[in-house]
Amino acid sequence: MHPLARTLLLASAVTASPATYALTLVEGELNIGQGTPVDSYRVSPGGKLIAEQATTEAIDVREGASLQMTGSTVTANGANGVALVNAKANIDGGSRIVSDRTGLRLQRRDLDGSTATVVDSYVEGAQGGALLSGNSVLNLQGSTLVGTGTSNAAWLFGNGVVNAQGSHLVGAGAGVQVSGDNTFSDAAQVNLVGSTVEGRNGSAIVVGDPGLAAKADIKVGAGSNLVGSNGVLLEVQGNSAATLAVDASDLVGDVKVEAGSSASISLDNHASLTGRLDNVEALSVANQARWNMVEDSSVGRLALNAGSVRFGEAGQYQRLTVGELSGNGTFIMDADFSTGQTDFLDVTGSATGQHSLLVGSSGADPVAENRLHLVHAAGGDPDLKFSLLNGPVDLGAFSYELKNLGDDWFLDGSRKIISPGTASVLALFNTSPTVWYGELTTLRSRMGEVRRDQGKSGAWGRAYGNKFNVATATGSDYQQVQQGFSLGADGVLPFGDGQWLAGVMAGHSSSDLNLERGASAEVKSYYLGLYGTWLDAASGYYFDGVVKLNRFDNSSDVTLSDGKRTKGDYNNLGLGVSAEFGRQFELDDGYFVAPYTQWSAVGIQGKDYHLDNGLQAQGDDTRSLLGKVGATVGRTFDLGQGRFAQPYLRLAYAHEFVNGNDVKVNDNRFDNDLSGSRGELGAGLAVSLNERLQLHADFDYSNGDHIEQPWGANVGVRYSW
């Protein structure tokens, strides 16, 4: 045993008191309180001292005796504050013990130790807050234990036990020191719940000292903390052994194990440990707990059970060497294709289980196509598996898969999987034409059955919604849901026998884009337009021309493979024209057929923009030329007094002629081609309530190359005068 430790253990609990105080021997039961003279007390075997609101000097409690202290003060000079020898003490009610030696000393007689319970009180000692021999127990509840000078808050020998709840243990040196005692084979115990152990000039907890090995089981429960001024949470030395179990607490600091000593650590129930593990024999991480590395590290045995290991912060690129790997968990890593640097897991012995890799994403592209080595497992079990937690890793324009070659796992980008960020860029540059067309429609869908109001001016409004399923040539498919409204007014021109209408319109639409793998985007469109319509009642011919100017506000919001989010936005302009020409043939019994053709062209301003993760996008001007031929078939029911009902069906064939809308993402060129043909089917109803007021509704479906419209709906009203 260390000479100083032996001296501390065997020394008399109370030295001679200063001459100004008397020493009172307590052989039976004695009650002292406020006003009792300040004395030192020695409680003889079998005796009991009850102190309420009392002020004393040192108190010495012998074999089988007890102390009950409530709201009292002990100030000891040249002696231990309260010393127990195979005795018990309950200290509560805001009691205060201060000594220039040990504040609270728990000694044993042979194998029988002492027990003290301290509740809502304060204990301080210049040679240690508390000293516990083997088989002694100190219970702290809502209390403070302080070691001043160069001493520790608590010094445990053998199998001594400290249970602290809602308490603070502060040592001027280390926080807690554990020393050995050859009499006892069991480990000392330090159990913390909602408590802090702090070493203000050393480690939080030190196990062992030169010349005498020690054992310690340390449990850090919910809301607890270990603080060492040297950054060390646990230090194990002198051929000692320690276990550290952390439950639902977050610790920051290192675990340092001297050669010849050993330590095992377990993290459980969302606990975290951020620090270096030096010569740690075993680490268990379970139930959403995490070890955050701060530098290259090695662990003898690593067992994961729904826990994770974080390889430092992004850009640090650390290496973890593991002797044996088991269980199932997640390794959080980073990789830089531009430099070839990665975090790296090296398993030198047996490896079992199924593990996930969560690799940090980036908006920057690799400088050159290559593979990055992430894991090596020399003794891998046939069932050993590594996989990417959220699928392919997003690195710039593409996403990279995990490839297994023998005992090694690599990030590989050979399949050129488009990243969610790239998908959002391509979708935004593709969406403006479908937004423009969704706002336009045909004359009948925009203004109702205007030939019934020929020669009249009017105003109109409509609300509409569309859904488009878009399959692009690049494979970045998306869904677009659009909703909006248009308002317009027109007047009869003073020439052409009332056959010409000229008008102005304005409106707004919003389109939500849903993409695969957590990407979304939105396009808000604001537009103004002019239109002219010619109707010839005699022949049934008609012409409708529209020119429309749009402002598009575009934004994207992307969830990347590592769970981070990135955003970007830009605005641009679009200008387009539409010309529709047709003829309505009136048949018997109110039936009619109206073949028509519509040609529309739009140009959307190109734009350069970026996502805030560094992804760069450059879009050329987007162009579209859409031609349609079709026919509307319906019947008009004359209800008299200017009222009518007109149901109809519409069939059309449409073809997109422009097949080259290029987009560059990080200098990778993508063909945003939506060219091809599709068929359209529509149904509608126009109803006139009187000579001035008309309502209409239309429903549409289309399908073909690249674009399907599962539904489109349009309701409108027109008032003529």
How would you describe this structure in keywords?
mainly beta, elongated, 5% helix, twelve-stranded parallel sheet, disordered N terminus, 721 residues, 24-stranded mixed sheet
Any overview of this molecule?
With 721 residues, the protein is mainly β. Helices cover 5% and strands 60% of the residues. It has a 24-stranded mixed sheet that branches. It has a twelve-stranded parallel sheet with strand order 1-3-6-9-12-15-18-21-24-27-30-33, with no helix packed on it. Strands 47-48-49-50-51-52-54-57-59-62-63-64 form a twelve-stranded antiparallel beta barrel. A hairpin with a 7-residue loop joins strand 48 and strand 49. It is elongated, with a radius of gyration of 41 Å. 48% of the residues are buried.
Terminal Cα span: 110 Å
Low-confidence stretches: 1-20
What is the rounded Rg? Answer: 41 Å
Structural class: mainly beta
Overall pLDDT metric: 91
Number of strands: 64
Short description:
This protein is mainly beta and 721 residues long.
Q: How is the secondary structure organized here?
A:
Blueprint: H1 3-10, E1 23-26, E2 29-33, E3 40-43, E4 48-52, E5 55-56, E6 59-61, E7 66-70, E8 73-76, E9 82-85, E10 88-92, E11 96-99, E12 104-107, E13 115-119, E14 122-125, E15 130-132, E16 137-141, E17 144-147, E18 154-157, E19 161-165, E20 168-171, E21 176-179, E22 188-193, E23 196-199, E24 205-207, E25 215-220, E26 225-228, E27 232-236, E28 241-247, E29 250-252, E30 254-257, E31 262-268, E32 272-274, E33 277-278, E34 280-286, E35 290-292, E36 297-310, E37 319-333, E38 335-336, E39 341-342, E40 344-351, E41 354-359, E42 372-380, E43 385-388, E44 393-395, E45 398-405, E46 408-418, H2 420-440, H3 443-447, E47 458-470, E48 478-492, E49 500-515, E50 519-535, E51 541-559, E52 565-583, E53 585-586, E54 591-604, E55 607-610, E56 616-619, E57 622-635, E58 637-640, E59 643-656, E60 662-665, E61 668-671, E62 676-688, E63 693-704, E64 707-720
Parallel strand pairs: 1-3, 2-4, 3-6, 4-7, 5-8, 6-9, 7-10, 8-11, 9-12, 10-13, 11-14, 12-15, 13-16, 14-17, 15-18, 16-19, 17-20, 18-21, 19-22, 20-23, 21-24, 22-25, 23-26, 24-27, 25-28, 27-30, 28-31, 29-32, 30-33, 31-34, 32-35, 34-36, 35-36, 36-37, 37-40, 37-41, 40-42, 41-43
Antiparallel strand pairs: 38-39, 42-46, 44-45, 45-46, 47-48, 47-64, 48-49, 49-50, 50-51, 51-52, 52-54, 53-54, 54-57, 55-56, 56-60, 57-59, 58-59, 59-62, 60-61, 62-63, 63-64
